[in-house]
Amino acid sequence: MSFIVKPVETFTLPLIIKEPTGVAETKEHDLAVTWKLLSKPERKALLKDIETAKKEHRELITQFAAGELEELPEFEFSDIALCEQLITGVDGLLTPDKEEIEYSAELLPELFDMDYVEAAFSAQLGEVLYGKAIRDLLEKN
């Protein structure tokens, strides 16, 4: 048994999209999402940046609520922004004519316009950033 010392740059996770089709009915669609694997220092730095930005954004929300700001700036670490940064591929996307769509980050706004798709990607993003997916990946290796 041997181990080649080479960092893994990406990893792929299955993602199930549950499309609503009726009252309490859904149709499942299977995708495979490839994520950039951040090193421990990269992930730690990103999480620190997110926490700092959340604190700053909370202050902006307070200022906005008090009427001190006319417009509330968009949060720089939104789920879609993080997905644009961390997703490198999605297999299983099809046109209505069942033709395969090659993934690009420009597709994410269209996908995130569908609440049930956004919810699935956001849940997986949380797993990738905060633990479960990373723990599972490390256990396999």
Structure in words:
The protein has 141 residues and is an alpha+beta fold. The protein has one domain. The protein is 45% helix and 21% strand. The chain has 5 helices and 3 strands. It has a 3-stranded antiparallel beta sheet with strand order 1-2-3. A hairpin with a 2-residue loop joins strand 1 and strand 2. It is globular. The two termini are 13 Å apart. The mean pLDDT is 91.
Briefly characterize the structure:
With 141 residues, the chain is α+β, with helices and mostly antiparallel strands. The protein is built from five helices and three strands. Helix content is 45%, strand content 21%.
Note the topology:
Elements: E1 10-22, E2 25-36, H1 40-65, H2 79-86, E3 87-91, H3 108-112, H4 115-130, H5 132-140
Antiparallel strand pairs: 1-2, 2-3
Helical coverage, percent range: 40-55%
Give a quick account of the main beta sheet: strands, pairing sense, barrel closure. Answer: 3 strands, antiparallel
Report strand order across the widest sheet: 1-2-3
Computed CA radius of gyration, to the nearest angstrom: 18 Å
Counted by DSSP, the helix tally is 5
- The total tally of domains equals 1
The total count of strands amounts to: 3
Mean model confidence by pLDDT: 91
What gap, in angstroms, lies between the N and C termini?
13 Å
